[in-house]
Amino acid sequence: MFKRDLFSEEVASYLSEDEWLVIEDGYDAQKNLAYESIFGLASGYMGNRASHEEGDVRSSLPANYIHGVFDKSEAFQRELCNTPDWTKLKMYYKRDPIGIESGQSLDEYIRVLDMKKGFLAKHYVTTAHDGRKTKVELIKFLSRGHNNLGLLRIYLTPINYQGLFEFENIIDASVTNFMDFPRFRVKHLETLEVEPIDEFGASILSQTRDFKLPIATTTAVAVYDMAGNNILKSRKFRRYGEVACEFIDAQVKEKQTIMIEKYASIRTGRDSDAVVYDASHDLRQALERGFDNEFEVHQAEYKRLWTRADLVIKGDDKLQHALRFNIFQLMSTPSMDDDRTNIGAKLMHGEEYGGHAFWDTELFILPFFTYVFPGVAKNLVTYRYNLIDKARENAKLNGYAGAKYPWESADTGDEECPAWTVEPDGSCYRCYVADYEHHVTAAVAFGVDRYYRFTKDEAFLKEKGLEIIVETARFWISRLEYSATKDHYEINQVTGPDEWHEPVDNNAYTNHLAKWNIRKALEYLTRYKQDESQVYYALLKKIQMTESEYEQWYAISEKIYLNNTSGLIEQFEGYFDLKHAIIHEWDANNMPLLPDALKGIKRSQTCILKQADVVMLMFLLENEFDKETQKVNYEYYEQRTLHRSSLSPSIHCMMGLRVGKEQHAYDYLERSAYVDLYDNQGNTREGIHAASTGGTWQSVTLGYGGMSVDREGILTFNPRLPKHWDYIEFSIIWEQVPLHIRITHEDVIIKAESIDKKITYKVNEKTYKI
Amino acid sequence: MFKRDLFSEEVASYLSEDEWLVIEDGYDAQKNLAYESIFGLASGYMGNRASHEEGDVRSSLPANYIHGVFDKSEAFQRELCNTPDWTKLKMYYKRDPIGIESGQSLDEYIRVLDMKKGFLAKHYVTTAHDGRKTKVELIKFLSRGHNNLGLLRIYLTPINYQGLFEFENIIDASVTNFMDFPRFRVKHLETLEVEPIDEFGASILSQTRDFKLPIATTTAVAVYDMAGNNILKSRKFRRYGEVACEFIDAQVKEKQTIMIEKYASIRTGRDSDAVVYDASHDLRQALERGFDNEFEVHQAEYKRLWTRADLVIKGDDKLQHALRFNIFQLMSTPSMDDDRTNIGAKLMHGEEYGGHAFWDTELFILPFFTYVFPGVAKNLVTYRYNLIDKARENAKLNGYAGAKYPWESADTGDEECPAWTVEPDGSCYRCYVADYEHHVTAAVAFGVDRYYRFTKDEAFLKEKGLEIIVETARFWISRLEYSATKDHYEINQVTGPDEWHEPVDNNAYTNHLAKWNIRKALEYLTRYKQDESQVYYALLKKIQMTESEYEQWYAISEKIYLNNTSGLIEQFEGYFDLKHAIIHEWDANNMPLLPDALKGIKRSQTCILKQADVVMLMFLLENEFDKETQKVNYEYYEQRTLHRSSLSPSIHCMMGLRVGKEQHAYDYLERSAYVDLYDNQGNTREGIHAASTGGTWQSVTLGYGGMSVDREGILTFNPRLPKHWDYIEFSIIWEQVPLHIRITHEDVIIKAESIDKKITYKVNEKTYKI
């Protein structure tokens, strides 16, 4: 039996087989907030948490985030705004609300995310205090056909009674960010108008408080019997402060099912000059097309997305399922056409970290898009280019040259990571991250380079990428400090990925990446000077750079202090002198525990790491370290890392594989893949760990699939499948050619969709061509 | 053990003995709405439902009604507005709300209304999902010292943990009327300003939507340890749309108790020109006086009120308790100094009937105030005088002369009972009550006459009362229709108190009262012409009446058709021809059931009554009907009355006593006394039945005490105490002399507080003097 058989035939007919479903089987109010994230939907235009549409649920954080809609107001940083909640459709029988938590008992309950088709479905039967039994089912999706639209359809069946039902189709603009966190709760929108739309809907016009960006949220309902007859007679518009409401009713007979369809259309000043007019227009057209029509277009689009993005792991059903969940949430989130938005650290599923882009984008998320949806990857790297002026300002502001990218980036490119934060206990905390954590700037350059190497998008490179790589290199040059006594360049007072040691001098990760960045700039400058000198000279002119400025860069980069390049590498100067002890205990979730010997000692004075800098460094700059060095360092640092960042496990999976720690690697893969699906860190309620979704995909394709690009720029595979996997299968777009790849224990089978162009690739050192 | 011993010593020290408490022992979410009414507080300025102050309760209708603040907007009548909720004080430990329904379990719970001192207290212990146990206690009162102030103090004790607690002091202006009744939900206020008050509080300025009446709601908090040290360090003001919030926090140690005091001050354009300024001023002064000081003044005032209003029933503890509850809610409600407001049919405890004054005021409520608080009674009758111009307009509008009082009266005196109402099923219903139910006009005159006869307030009579009685008589004269064939005057197309027969011709109740009203006008006109002719002529001039206009009134009144004055009186013409059957079954609550023989027949075509007109008539005009007639009619109609109005039982109690049906009478007394205290009709959630509170008081004093004023205006007593009562004891103010009355089975003992004036009274036909 499939889970869909628990639904009515009507709803079951839409649902995929179980392997494509994420299932909430039975309702637990304590888990509702986590499921709001897990079942969050995103359309590339907006993201919507899965708060129960009928309302009346005690613990719920309804949220609708829209790409590029940020505001600061009283918050200590510019945040992705919670915008009006358009999802609510309240149901009543004689004033008594019908909903998950409203009755005397909830007799049946199942909710599923159909990842294949990109929609939510639920089914429940509730018994009211007076014994009335009601069956409710729902389908909800954010249309990928018209991604500013959200639609839902409720099937309502009174099982043992009948009469007049009342409904409220609601837009609630009273929402805030951090609704359940009083200290941090901020209302980012002002409500300007709460109005009916002609005779068929309701709208709210809001604006952000800082920039006055207008946002129109519009909605309308339709009611049908199961024969498809419109049974909606009249609607009454009501204004309740910041809430717009359409009141409607319908007579329903015992055992009869009716469908209440809700349509919502959203527009902001980012995409429209007349937001209410345009949103209403879209709404009217959606109503005319109808739910089924919109749903079909939506499903066709998800089919297309999955054709590109699916990753089959034959022989490991649980992991297969989790992989699809990670891919589903990751691929659904970014805009397909907006190069002024990025992807926040919690995707569009929660507001922690303000919806800001971190280095997570370039190092964890971008690979997936680079390999699978290069159009999106192009938007993500272009986002950095669009904000390069702010990065230049940011460098200047801090006394440096070139472009220094902000640790946290929102819509303006300003540094959003505040110098002072408020802690949950109300104390003010001087936050040094923006001051010291400079490696993000190298990550941006790294992302651009990887994007280019994989896509061979020459236009992007010469128009935008080159400038980023040169300007970031320029930053590093200005950031270096020459030590005359030691005759080398140092980078002092920085923080590496491991934020528990802050600040430090000569962080191995930062120094290596800075060197890489400078060398990469020189490489591209040289190439363009030779091959396309007009591009080269135009760039120099634009960024006011003379050849003499960079002629010493190579020599300087040679003298950047790297404490070691083989053997054990010290994470930073003085790390080996800290109080050392290795991890010897793990908790019930297999999470490492602080060694007893280090308890009571200030974290920064111990060797224990939040996440491993050196391991990350070797993962990124694989070719610069020999196998033995990688092994020595992995083994050393793995014993000292608590993985208190969701960025850590996937890197340890991939590095574990490289150094032959298969069981380690698989444990880390699971940790990464399941973090939100099973709420393993207990914080899924705050959103989906974006870096984990991308890191998980990388772990399978780059890690187990052993896919990489070698020094010569050749696509190479060194697969290391676990014994219990039969094969993995996925698609990428390599140098603009779609490739379908199946990796078994014996073979790597690659099929190109187009054969206009020869593809060369290597498998375990042997070269092949197709 | 007293119930107060379940509280901490601190709170227990404030609480009265059990007989003065209404107790909610253990929490049942299903009963919460009823307790919000039962525990509602009123200050004479405003009324406040007892919604739990910590919020986070699923089923709750927070409400704060202010005398005279009405608005119509989309409602079908002008309603007493729900104004901003100033009561909320939310508490959190690490984001986790602390409240009645918030935890894993509620281990202890008791809430009491201390009727003696006029405050609410609660105590509970809740265990959170993580095992934290918290004790919370609360005291809340609406100050009678400064009746625009509401205060509450929470005692918070973490039992097995400690740390930082966070609090939100909230004013919520997003409230509506009929919050849980989507079809009727209306928002009557617009929010104009949500602002901090200097550095110490928060305010919201609202206004009614129709008349733009400004309302300022202000609040501030103070936090103390139990040694009285101020431990409030800082407060942050936050604006969330229509919600004002002061965010504060405090460190609390394990087992330590802290006190969080909330002060609120409200002002409207009815009592201030600068509402926010004045409310803030009052708030600041209250803060300076402090909680204990304000509480002491408040308690002293309740002591004074009870000295006047207590009614002791020795030998019947349950009824004693209920009587005090009825008196407490009734006496707390009206303004002591505002003669432009009245008392709504649900007191200030719910919004059903729009907070409108009905004939309930004059016939059910006014006697209590006339006898106990004549100052309030004077305001209530003056309210009618203040609106007499509108009553004259209303008469003219309907084609009549004189003054026709509206069936439902709010602030303007317009008829608020709409011609069309919307039913819960959404259908529109033509409501004929305002068209036909004319007897309210006689009730207004009756109230004025009773007020005068009891108080001998000559000034009121000549300045206001006389005009009301004459103008209402003038209405009746114009309302009469002469039948030449029968040579009598008829009143056709009316509805009596029994609304199930609508309209009817020559309703006995209406015809008798019309006649009484005309005769009373003639009596006063004659008297003033003789005794104070300048008053008489001034009146005639003012109301443009000539002596010739009324010279035929007596003759006309003689010819008003009264179908019978002894023997069985037909309720209206044709009543005896209806389908008849007598009640022979009662439900589990002892409520009569429709006889089987009448089922399926249109109500108006059967003899079955909602409430008995003829019984009511005999109760009011006792002296016009002999004992036998009263008995015959009581017995006849009692068998045909379903008592579907809360006005019915008390009248049947008193009439039952008169005709010797003691057991009947006692059953009816209980029905009246317990209706809300035990939510016997299941609708206490909508408010307190105002008529029952007054009717219950009348049942004991006028019914069992047999107190009345005879034809000669002498205070008389014909006591009929039930055997199990030892005595009753109460106070009245008779002709401005406070009298203390104890009625035993043997005696009526009267003590006068002042002996400047001789008092004559009769007991069982014998005359006494003091």
How are the SSEs ordered, and which strands pair?
Two copies of one chain form a homodimer.
Chain A: H1 9-12, E1 21-25, H2 32-38, E2 41-42, E3 46-48, E4 64-66, E5 70-71, E6 79-80, E7 89-93, E8 96-97, E9 105-114, E10 119-127, E11 133-142, E12 149-158, E13 163-172, E14 189-197, E15 201-208, E16 214-225, E17 236-240, E18 243-252, E19 258-268, H3 275-289, H4 291-309, E20 311-314, H5 317-332, E21 345-348, H6 360-372, H7 374-386, H8 388-397, E22 420-422, E23 428-430, H9 433-436, H10 439-455, H11 458-479, E24 481-483, E25 488-490, H12 508-531, H13 533-542, H14 547-550, H15 553-558, H16 613-620, H17 627-638, H18 648-658, H19 662-674, H20 690-704, E26 707-709, E27 715-717, E28 727-734, E29 737-744, E30 748-752, E31 760-763, E32 766-769
Parallel strand pairs in A: 27-31
Antiparallel strand pairs in A: 1-9, 2-3, 3-4, 5-6, 7-8, 7-13, 9-10, 10-11, 11-12, 12-19, 13-18, 14-15, 15-16, 16-19, 17-18, 20-28, 22-23, 24-25, 26-27, 28-29, 29-30, 31-32
Helix pairs in contact in A: 5-20, 6-7, 6-10, 6-20, 7-10, 7-11, 10-11, 10-12, 11-12, 12-13, 12-16, 16-18, 17-18, 18-19, 18-20
Description of the molecule:
The structure is a homodimer of 770-residue chains. Chain A is α+β, with helices and mostly antiparallel strands. The first copy, chain A, is 32% helix and 24% strand. Chain A has a 9-stranded antiparallel β-sheet. A 5-stranded antiparallel β-sheet of chain A has the order 8-7-13-18-17, with no helix packed on it. The first copy, chain A, has a 4-stranded antiparallel β-sheet with strand order 20-28-29-30. In chain A, strand 10 (119-127) and strand 11 form a beta hairpin. Chain A is globular and about 90 Å long. The two termini of chain A are 43 Å apart. In chain A, 55% of the residues are buried. The A-B interface holds A 30, 56, 58, 74, 90, 92, 94-95, 101, 129, 164, 166, 168, 173-174, 176, 180-183, 185-187, 191, 238-243, 245, 247, 249, 424-426 and B 30, 56, 58, 74, 90, 92, 94-95, 101, 129, 164, 166, 168, 173-174, 176, 180-183, 185-187, 191, 238-243, 247, 249, 424-426.
